[in-house]
Batch of 3 targets.
Target 1
Amino acid sequence: MHVKAQMSMVMNLDKCIGCHTCSVTCKNVWTNRAGAEYMWFNDVETKPGIGYPKRWEDQERWRGGWELDRRGRLRLRAGGRLRKLATLFANPDLPELDDYYEPWTYDYETLTRAGPSQHQPVARPESQITGRPLELAWGPNWEDDLAGAPERAGADPNLRGAAEEAVRLEYERAFMFYLPRICEHCLNPSCVASCPSGAMYKREEDGIVLVDQEACRGWRMCVSGCPYKKVYFNWHTGKAEKCTLCYPRLEVGLPTVCSETCVGRIRYLGLVLYDADRVEAAASTPDERDLLEAQLGLFLDPFDDEVQALARRDGIPEDWLEAARRSPVYPLAVRYRVALPLHPEYRTLPMVWYVPPLSPVLSMVEGEGSGADPDDVFPAIDELRIPVSYLANLLTGGAEEPVRVALKRLAAMRAHTRERNLGSEPDPALAASVGMDAGEIDAMFRLLAVAKYDERYVIPQAHAEVAGRLAEQQGSCGLEFPGGPGSCGVQARRADPLGAAPFGDDEIDLVGLLERRGGR
Amino acid sequence: MSRVDLFLWVALPYLCVAVFVVGHVWRHRRGQLTWTTRSTQLLESRLLRIGSPLFHLGILAAVGGHVLGILVPRGWTEAIGIQEHAYHWIAIVAGVAAGTAIVLGLAILLYRRVAVPRVRHTTTRSDLVVLPLLVLVIGGGMLVTVWGTAIDEYPYRTTVSPWFRGIFGFAPEADLMAGAPFVFQLHAVSSWLLFAVWPFSRLVHAWSFPLGYLRRSHILYRSRTPRAALARNRALDGRRRG
């Protein structure tokens, strides 16, 4: 056994209001640069819908993630190493910009320069790449709140099997929920395995998956290799970029920007201890529907004495073990089983998990004036307009029972807590009917509904004692320059005697170099 | 031998090789952040999927041909039983095939670079230097193969090749090259210039062909070591004082 710590996230979809604050704050911090305009390290999708980039979940088309070969061994869906090298000059699985959208801005100058005229001046949209006027036809949240769903949502790859029959897209019967997405920081990341240059790596200490901007050579295999399409190609710098889980913030104990600014307080950050030796075996589980259980089987109980001893042996510091014991992710995923992974069938063992949305069930039942009697609620779970099968396609690789368990526990929690709020003692049979006890339900309620800041985010500081200095770099380490992100250290180490970065926007700028030298 | 000949066939090669070597050391140490293919497949895929493999595979074949025709002395190939006549035909057939692929590929890639607005707008100033040079080198190379070798049957293996090897043996014989047909001279000069701008352009990605990928393990871990953090802080301290 090899104990490793993984920083992971849970999002409570039941509380997501789809406000996009996470996306916008993330963009302002990380991808507000040339070449990165179209990148959304965090985006919020309306489900059902085809998402961003278009139909990213269709792995028949994009061939991301892993699959099992005939002998049951794990291999990259897009093919082996030789095939990767053979398709180096033109990657057949790479999405094009139009699969995301062409980034645009508006011609504000027309407004500011407009003289008196009979008609209102208009700021027309123009491409941020070519500067040409752009006919807007698609964007990162074009399908927000089911916009255009009657024509398009049927193309959602999760609508297959029973789900296809059951989902009703007519306006008055429609149902939707929001799915905020960031990089999954997988235990078995296929982007890392796809990178020919070895520029992508998983951090030993906290499992964050990063791209080394100095080592990336722009072969773009990671973009197609990631089944979640959360690695992006910067057309300006020619290198890949992705969500960093805001590691500079985590290292000093702060939550990610998307978590910190989440209005609905839906996000949880915490450590999970896992056995790195069994990752490959778990990812090779034959039946897709067993992958959730296999991944849960990797997670180690941070309260177990033996686990703690092994973790110490493997160099996990004491305060990290303490953080693992206080982690909100471990109970939500393992103890209460209300959090589920996103598309475990990609076999990457993703580490951003989701509490499935329950609200529509209850509003359906409560809207008709009935009480929150779980006898009314539980059957309703199977009659959801978005059926359990849809959530199962999304969150469990098609296994419906774990989704049902999670929804029933959430429903039981509501009924239980309502009893308490109304002044009567909840019936212990209610908790028992979903396999929990009153204490556990109260604890789950506290975590999910009260959701105190320091219970949602349990982030141990990075363990180089010197890392405290990172906080001092805040504000001195901008990302707005072309060629970011995060190359402060690089710039300092490679200070240029000519008085500027060796290459600015351009690779060869001999004129500029001579001018700078002449100026000295 | 005129001064011009001396410059073109002795000074220029050494100058360009020097820039090539020193430039690469500089680029390797300072320019990792921009060391990339600068692929534009994200912006346009349909044409690139035809043009890029044609061009790159053709170039790889052409490099092989150059090694055989220029680096390997005529005596060696004859020693292993390849007579001049056979060599000549191999060179022409393979050369024309590779050259056609390169020219086709380059034409497609140049067309998309000019005609596709997204690609045109991401063209860098270094591209504006490299692409015309590439056209010159490849056009010259094609002429050398078709006209110089196939039609004119100029014996470059006893003139151009020894001159080229002589440069690296520090015994350049400029006379050999001064008497060569113009297309050979054009191809040689433009190639030296291409080598000189190589380290300052996207061409450096040629050295990054990821052969290591075939052997490494799938999942990579890297530690965020205290030592690295210390070094970073020290560098920052230095900058603050300076």
Note: The CA atoms of residues 10 and 167 of chain B lie 7 Å apart.
Target 2
Amino acid sequence: MMASEIATVGDWQGEADSQGQLHIAIHDGWARRWSYAGRLADYVAAYFRADLELVGADQLADASAFLTYAVNEMVENAVKFGRGEEIELRARLLRDHLQVIVISRAEAETAHRYQQVVQELADGDPLMLLMERVERNAVEGPSAGSGLGLLSIMTDYGASLGWRFQHAQDTAVAISTMARLPINQVGKG
Amino acid sequence: MEVVGGDYRVGVDSASRTAVFSGTLRLNGTDEYAPILQMLDDLLDTSQGSNCTWDLRELQFLNSSGINMLYQLVIKARRLGNINMHVVGSKDVAWQGKSLGNMSRFMPGLELTVD
């Protein structure tokens, strides 16, 4: 069944439906395997290393750092807000950017709240939002999540983020999160 | 004092009021960070009127929950107002070059050294 679109938010790029250069499906039960998100992120960074080496040393370091951090945060979010089902990761190096997409399914109510949260991120200034969020965390004390993962992908790594929400089977909503890091491929013809 | 996990260690030397971090910290949210947070919070309390150093040079990775923990402690130090915070990082560790600079935003007097 083709999923019907509910909304796109932020810097979502339509061509994302094509297959990724790296395409990994992670089956259910991930809530018990939290620490694997980091190992998966390390793997994705290692996978793109050879291609990125053509780009130049500074960008290699920046791009690897972005993959290691962003993949870990995006998969952690998918585990946190998902309903324990399959998580899909697609990553590819395009002419002028690195693109990572993580797709998971959430309950409709969770997805609706998540959509409001990411709409706020897309509409605001990321650094201002990060500063406000950290100060708010200090006042409010421990909570379920720091809220810093997505914001820091934008503020600290200079990546853009976009989201797509689609109806999936039964009442679930498929949430796709896309992170894109600009790349200057000077070494390639 | 120290907190040691599968692939990380955070140790505190009370005499020099220094916390040394190493390895990879990707714990799951506030609950799993609680033992480290408690130890670092105690270190801040005993550093009042003096200096406190975090040596992060050997910490290869820190997830956003861990970064949030450090920012919260920096804000606490700012509010206490009587601690000279010194954070030491390494430019060879990618996340440190990206995220440590924010600490000075939360505590303008913080001394940040990234070599």
Note: The first helix of chain A runs from residue 36 to 47.
Target 3
Amino acid sequence: MASIVIWAETRNGSIRKSTLECIGAARTLEPFQGCERVGVLIGDAACADELSRYGLTSIRVVTGEQLRRFSSEGYAGVLAEITREVKGDIVLLGATALGRDIAGRLAARLDGSLGTDIIAIHPDGDGLLIDRPVYSGKLTARVKLVRKPAVLTLRPNTFPAAEAASGQTPVTQADAVTMTIRATVTQALEAARGVLDVTEASIVVSGGRGVGGAEGFKILESLADTLGAAVGASRAAVDSGWITYSHQVGQTGKVVSPVLYIACGISGAIQHFAGMGSAKFIIAINKDPDAPIMKKADFAIVGDLFKVVPVLAEELRKLRTS
Amino acid sequence: MDIAVVIKQTPDTEARIVPDSGNTKQIVSDGINFILNPYDEFALEEALTITESSGGEVICFAIGPESSEPAMRTALAMGAARGILITDPGAVDADIVTQGKILAAAIRTVNPGLVLCGREWIDVQEDALAAILGEFLDMPHVMNAARITLNGSQVTVNREVEGATFEITSPLPAVVSCQKGLNEPRYPTLIAIRKSKSKELKMMSSADLGLTSIVPASQIVALEAPPPRAQGKLVTGETDQLVAQSLRWLSDEAKLI
């Protein structure tokens, strides 16, 4: 029976949603039916109990002094070892910053194939076909994975997250063998508490040239707080210095795929669309009914964002508290 | 210390991209303006700044058809000393893992102290190159550098991960991919553009590098335009009406509240 190895990424003491989406894909997608699902938790056993509730076949916990902090070499090393041992055909990781950092090295080390930022997986005889966006999302490529094992990163918010299953998955713990790890994290600076990254949020409130300045982003932040959303920005807003680059959505920024994207004062250039075109729903607020974003939004509000956004935030707050 | 920079020629970000109806594995390239992959400019600028202050040459590597020469010349005009372009169709059409293996074989011939590339190739939307090169070159790698500091035989890189900044320290040689914000890429001067035409640009094939049989790890079978987003609802009116309609849409259509 074929095996699927799934990297369990943790953050602030819990399993990340992107990992639950990998488990969800492994449990439900047609080509993966009947496969063993091996969860791999690296560096810290604390989340093993949480992970054991999601219907994996087995869980490996690997710890050791060298694995206390993230390193691509160390984590790829552990995953390569386990993939060989269980004769895994597939390795699944979330297409997160760290998942992407591991995947390329792992595919090269296993002499396998690599599929990144995947939005769909189809059976193909006893192989796999994957769909992934290319050319800034202007096209979708269907790719045949020829060589095994296939290392795959799944685009966040695209596959259904696994629900808790009945029963508990058995956990085995092992110490890592000594590895060559050269690039190491020497310092990790967490962003201010409560600041949600645009790639993680299920709702993004984003501002462009029409926001007019750093002050304007305060209005968006207030709406974002109400919705539990992250604040995004277009390149124009970032280049004007109104907000930092880590918020930029688009071709030269981050690619997001939230459930809801609220574009405020953003014209919707093709480069911006490349970063958010796969959002499930798009709301656009713009004074100009002919702005390109208005034709792509599910709900296009012709109006002044400085008037609409504060009232919308206030009404949503009332709904929340009532 | 010599620095290897991997670059690529890609369509302009504004370009309209459609699959070739005769061969849906490829795009229609007529009428497309090709440019140096935007992220590669940050890698080149960083490499040039480092070699200008501490010596060494910047050597560019690329895989692409012979028509990728303009991107190579742009890199040479920015200040790279010479370039190697791998042009055989087996390499050009290969997946990124296989291309990483070929590029690693080419880079090994110059024994660089540092290897830089852009964060992502914007055409195939692949950002895994630094990690793949690291493995094949037996070097450590760091992705998405927002700051690079060299300190003797070590490099320290700042990179963002969701909601945090990591400072990563690595011995050299290492592979680092470069992110926007790292620096402000220079524009080549007219004199530099003229001079770049006589700089060495070597066309090679994978076979020249000893890679005689290229077996792809994965293959594109088709390119397709994603279904267009349907025109949604457009609302106008006074603020109160707009907000009321928005709330109704959020609850009835999107079912989010």
Note: DSSP finds nine helices and 18 strands in chain A.
